[in-house]
Write a structure and sequence with these properties.
The complex is a heterodimer of chains A (about 850) and B (about 300). With about 850 residues, chain A is mainly β. Chain A has four helices and 62 strands. The radius of gyration of chain A is 30 Å and the shape is globular. The C terminus of chain A is likely disordered. The chains are: A mainly beta (about 850), B alpha+beta (about 300).
């Protein structure tokens, strides 16, 4: 007998699912074959005699068995082949049977064929179904009306969208809730595969709920929050029909009674769970589900609200070197960071990226030379090597970063070598050759852009005094060629990029500069400037200067660069032109910690600010347009809402408490150096007077323990019944400034005050509307890492909040049932000698 | 693309070596993979025609058909041509959207990829406050793609108006979002829909509606070029005139706002005429009196 074609396709996409259903029980002599044809290889999956074999064929008599498994072909069984770059999987009834690594090449054609037992045997399969698959992107902020559920399908119960009473433009007050005791709602398709699902959740009380992924009517993964009598848990289960299998569970705190984010991912059976970005659980399902929709479940009507649901492709894998799962090859990227934990260099360690069938490969090799020095070689279209000056002690992180046309290698986050990759022709796999403890593969991206404004307000001319892009910048003089310094501090990696395209005509007469500088103006010698300026009638020059060093490149005016960028990263200063690394050198000592970012132009057109993008690591900005999932309100009434019903566009976070403390901790920890800056305004309380006679205590705390305000430094604007601006350590006054206080006048209506707080090691500083309100050094600085906002017997509204620090903004472990924080006012009431000023009220 | 040259070492009678530049191309004979170049192939049988294809990633396939009479008598050297690099230029409205190509974040619009191979690509654009847009692109020639990222607020306010047409705030917010999106005509239609609601509302409740009109007429927020401002002012005028045609005895507040809008739009003479008309219908209403004084209309009630 000969093979009979069942289905064939040409020009296959990069990834797909191709399924067929067995029409009748197969005899031992019958066979089913799925064939892929590429450029230099054929891959045959044959199912016969109770076995499933995957063969790689590279020539007439060149066959290699890749993988083998037992299988039975019975009536009604669905066989699915899934193909993605470098990987073939065979699923039986939606459950993976085998996975086989494939050569990295495009599969041009494919076919299902059947080898019958006899000429007139009835067909073994009826028909095939083909579905192209790909990365899944899905966002849902539930900005619908109450009865519009958008792309969501109710599977059980009743669901609806709820809104605040004052639903307005920018505060995104909409969320999803179940209107019945039991509810399940889903979004997506059965062919959604290998994704990450996150959702913001708010529970009123400690009530159960769940997130679903790979949901089909037949099966699903379910992450469920299960309240307990003493401890709550998150349980990850897998359902197949009626059968439920526990995959893992973990105790958890800090989920109930506040906005929080749960995230769960599934990548070829590798399941990971995070709560507020803290990794909680990592399990492997050896026979993973093929895929499916995402979903939400509840068991209590109206007690849980869901918001800001998102589905994303998995672009980060942490891999234990002992794992040999070929499925982990399926993360194929062009821009990638490979980071390996290295204990022993041995014969050398090699990281690779962008390895593909076109012959591309970028590598970073670390090895010891004959003299015992460590050499790093970065190899792409060029090969560059350098000697590691400071040999790391103990285990260290070796990383290769590949971003567009450039690559660099770092050891413990310090850049040690650069290389050129050439232009991207195709993505590829990434990994490690050599002996490492573990490694991670993640998509490499430019530094995340910081932006913190609300769109509808940026356009308002009446609001331009504080809402347009230039309000992020402080001008020294406001004159031509004046330096505008960005109002934020940057303690970690930072970049500033100027889009030059809108300014090509201006470059006939005007210059544009990007600047970095340290803490004080006296450091001008260490100021770094990347400047583009007219040079002659035909030429424009780009120059970078740092101290006595200057480098210049010239461009013809008919071929001007489209962008330039200055970056501090990994201990280096990098200058980029048109996305390509042009210059790099060690960052001067004055830029080791604090980096200020500046812009200068000889043009008086202030719209330059719209063409500049700042990117930064370890910076978080909040315009409070989404659920406040990064905050933990522990006292008082806190909500994201709008300030004015008559002009309700500015979204902000407000806190209010009469006769007590309103306190809101951020969930992340800061480093030794940290800056907070934000706008703060009074909350109108008409019952206390029409001229803001009551306003006081716009306070922030940092270096605290996340429990008591008294554990940290408090920076008080209008503290102690508006006595002045005060810096406290616990309830001890470190600094007092009676000149800067809140104006208790009617004109304070709609007024916002800009507050900036900086802790640089042991020095604490405090500015209000760019005026220094406090400056003090504490010889024994506090070691706490938590920061928050608080007021006392008052209300305040926070807008455009930004935190910038020198350490990863990792979420702190949540505190179950956090206490009402102790503040200086708790102790001043009981301790008359506490020593700080008391205003009229005290 | 077929070049002939002397190659030695053929071991079977009529067998021929196929070489390629670059090497390691897959040699397919009638859809059967025989191996990689350099590769020796036997000649076809006397009554047989074979189709030979050389394939290598990144290169255009080389193909030829032979029968026993056309089978070359000299080794075959194949020079594979690189596939043409295609470009894909992506722009968006608003600009600055994050571009994902086949799951990877690759930059912000406007963005051009210069060295893409032909084939299928999945494109996604994302911008905070906008609906994400996904496109499947079958790239066979260099292409420019422009994507408009829908504003979800517009959809939402339309839905809310459909459910509760009397709630004036939704009309105002819809107009504002449409103006910021450059949808002037749609914004004027939305204003026209909201006008009867504003007129039947209390002055306090309607304040945001009239304020929005003032902001458009007086260009109090940046919604476009001078041409856009002129179009918007013309649109406002049309909305007022159309409503006046339907309801000539519209409220005093309507006439006051109509006159104010014309005045803000630098149409002083027409503003005075409309103001006077309102005064003639409604007498010396407070709002009409205010605008009359502002634009210099004298009116004797008697």
């Amino acid at each position: 007998m000969s093979w009979q074609a069942l289905a064939a396709r040409e020009r296959l996409p990069n990834s797909f699912i191709w399924s067929t259903e067995i029409a009748r029980n197969a005899s031992d002599d019958e066979a089913l074959r799925f064939r892929l044809a590429g450029t230099t290889a054929l891959v045959d999956t044959s199912i016969e005699s109770g076995r499933c074999n995957v063969w790689l064929i590279t020539g007439k008599d060149q066959r290699e068995k890749l993988v083998e498994s037992a299988i039975s072909l019975s009536s009604g069984t669905t066989i699915s082949a899934t193909v993605e770059t470098g990987l073939l999987s065979i699923f039986v009834d939606g459950q993976r049977l085998i996975v086989a690594p494939l050569p990295l090449q495009k599969w041009r054609s494919g076919s299902w064929s059947w080898l019958p037992q006899e000429q007139d045997s009835p067909a073994l399969v009826d028909e095939t179904t083909f579905q192209k698959t790909g990365p899944v992107f899905f966002d849902e902020d539930f900005m619908h009306t109450e009865n519009d559920l958008g792309e969501w399908t109710v599977r059980e119960g009743r669901w609806g969208v709820v809104a605040l009473n004052n639903p307005t433009r920018s505060a995104n007050p909409f969320s999803l809730t179940s209107k019945a005791a039991q509810g399940v709602i889903t979004a997506g398709y059965p062919f959604w595969r290998n994704y990450e699902f996150s959702c913001a959740v708010y529970t009123e009380g400690v009530v159960p709920f769940g997130l679903l992924l790979c949901y089909t009517e037949a099966a699903e993964y379910r992450l469920e929050f299960e309240p307990g009598t003493s401890i709550d848990t998150l349980a990850l289960t897998r359902r197949d029909g009626e059968q439920v299998t526990m995959l893992g569970h973990v105790d958890v705190t800090g989920i109930a009674n506040q906005w929080t984010v749960l995230r769960v991912s599934q990548f070829h059976g590798h399941l990971n769970v995070w709560h507020d970005d803290i990794p909680l659980m990592s399990v492997v399902d050896p026979a993973p589900l093929i895929g499916g929709a995402v979903g939400i479940s509840t068991k209590h009507a109206g007690s849980v609200r869901f918001d800001d649901a998102a589905v994303r492709p998995v672009t980060h894998l942490d891999i234990d070197s002992a794992q040999s799962d070929p499925a982990l090859r399926a993360l194929v990227l062009a821009n990638v960071s490979v980071t390996a934990r290295v204990e022993s260099i041995g014969d050398g360690v090699r990281l690779y990226a962008r390895r593909n069938d076109l012959g591309d490969e970028i590598t970073a090799t670390l090895k010891a030379d004959a003299a015992g020095n460590l050499q790093v070689i970065v190899s792409g279209v060029t090969t560059e090597s350098s000697t590691v000056e400071a040999r790391p002690r103990g285990p260290f992180d070796l990383a290769l970063h590949v971003l567009d046309g450039d690559a660099w290698c770092s050891i413990n986050d310090r850049i040690v070598a650069f290389g050129k990759c050439g232009e991207i022709t195709a993505p590829g796999t990434a990994g490690v050759d050599g002996n490492v403890i573990r490694y991670s593969v993640a998509a490499a991206t430019p530094l995340p852009a910081i932006k913190n404004r609300v769109r509808v307000f940026e356009h308002e001319k009446a609001m331009s005094g504080w809402s347009k892009t230039t309000t992020d910048w402080l001008s020294a003089t406001g004159k031509r060629d004046a330096i505008y310094w960005h109002r934020s501090d940057f303690w970690s990696a930072v970049s500033i990029e100027q889009d030059l395209r809108p300014w090509h005509a201006e470059l006939n007469a005007h210059s544009f500069s990007l600047l970095f500088a340290g803490e004080t103006p006296a450091d001008k010698a260490d100021q770094i400037e990347l400047k583009i300026a007219p040079k002659s009638e035909d030429d424009v020059s780009v120059e970078i200067s740092s101290g006595n060093m200057t480098s210049t490149i010239t461009f013809k005016k008919d071929a001007l660069p489209e962008s330039m960028q200055l970056e501090r990263r990994g201990g280096k200063i990098l200058a980029w032109i048109d996305g390509e690394l042009w210059q790099h050198f060690d960052a001067p000592g004055s830029l080791a910690d604090l980096c200020r970012v500046g812009h200068r132009t000889s043009s008086l057109d202030e719209s330059w600010a719209d063409t500049v993008v700042i990117g930064a690591a370890n910076v978080a900005s909040y315009s409070f347009r989404t659920a406040p999932v990064d905050w933990s309100a522990v006292a008082g009434d806190w909500k994201v809402t709008n300030r004015w019903q008559c002009d309700p566009r500015w979204s902000f976070y407000s806190g209010y408490k009469r006769n007590g403390v309103a306190c809101n901790w951020h969930k992340a920890k800061h480093g030794d150096n940290v800056t907070l800056d934000f706008y703060v305004g009074p909350k109108m309380q008409k019952e206390r007077g029409g001229s803001y006679q009551y306003i006081a205590d716009f306070n922030a705390v940092l270096a605290a323990d996340g429990r008591d305000v008294n554990s940290g430094y408090s920076f008080m604007l209008g503290g102690c019944d508006n006595a002045g601006s005060i810096i406290l350590r616990s309830d001890n006054e470190l600094n007092f400034n009676g000149a800067i206080k809140l104006p208790r006048v009617g004109a304070t209506h709609r007024r916002w005050f800009h507050v900036k707080i900086r802790k640089h090691g042991n020095r604490l500083r405090f500015w209000v509307d760019n005026k220094l309100a406090g400056d003090v050094t504490d010889d024994n600085p506090l070691k706490g890492r938590r920061f928050g906002l608080w007021t006392w017997d008052n209300g305040m509204m926070i807008a455009q909040f930004r935190i910038s620090t020198n350490a990863d903004l990792e979420t702190a472990t949540a505190i179950n049932q956090p206490p009402i924080p102790k503040t200086p006012y708790d102790t001043i009431y009981t301790n008359a000698d506490a020593g700080f000023r008391t205003g009229d009220r005290m | 693309m077929l070049a002939l040259g002397l190659v030695t070492g053929c071991s079977r009678p009529g067998s021929l070596e196929f070489e390629s530049q670059p090497p390691q191309a897959g040699i397919w004979v009638d859809d059967e993979l025989h191996g990689k170049t350099p590769l020796e192939l036997s000649p076809p049988a006397p009554d047989q025609t074979v189709h030979i294809r050389a394939a290598l990633s990144g290169y255009v396939d080389w193909e030829a058909s032979y029968d026993s009479t056309t089978w070359p008598d000299e080794p075959v050297q194949i020079v594979l041509q690189k596939r043409l690099a295609l470009s894909l230029s992506i722009t968006s409205q608003p600009t600055g959207a994050t571009v994902f190509l086949n799951r990877e974040q690759r930059g912000r619009t406007p963005l051009t990829f210069d060295r893409l191979e032909s084939g299928s690509y999945q494109l996604m654009l994302q911008l905070p406050g906008r609906e994400s847009v996904k496109r499947d692109i079958d790239l066979q020639a260099s292409e420019n793609v422009h994507v408009k990222l829908p504003n979800p607020a517009i959809t939402m306010f339309r839905q809310r108006i459909a459910e509760n047409p009397k709630h004036l705030h939704n009309h105002v917010d819809l107009v504002h979002e449409l103006m910021l999106d450059g949808e002037t005509i749609a914004a004027m239609e939305a204003l026209a829909t909201g006008m009867p609601v504003a007129i039947t509302n209390t002055p306090d409740n309607a304040k945001r509606f009239w304020d929005e009109i003032n902001k458009i007429a007086n260009e109090q927020y940046e919604y476009g070029s001078d041409k856009d401002v002129s179009r918007a002012r013309a649109g406002l005028k049309a909305v007022f005139f159309n409503y006046k045609g339907v309801d000539p005895n519209a409220s005093a507040l309507f006439y006051a706002q109509f006159a104010r809008t014309l005045s803000l739009s630098k149409e002083k003479v027409l503003a005075k005429e409309i103001c006077l008309e309102g005064l003639q219908i409604h007498g010396k209403h407070k709002a009409l009196a205010e605008i009359a004084e502002e634009i210099g209309v004298k009116f004797n009630h008697d």
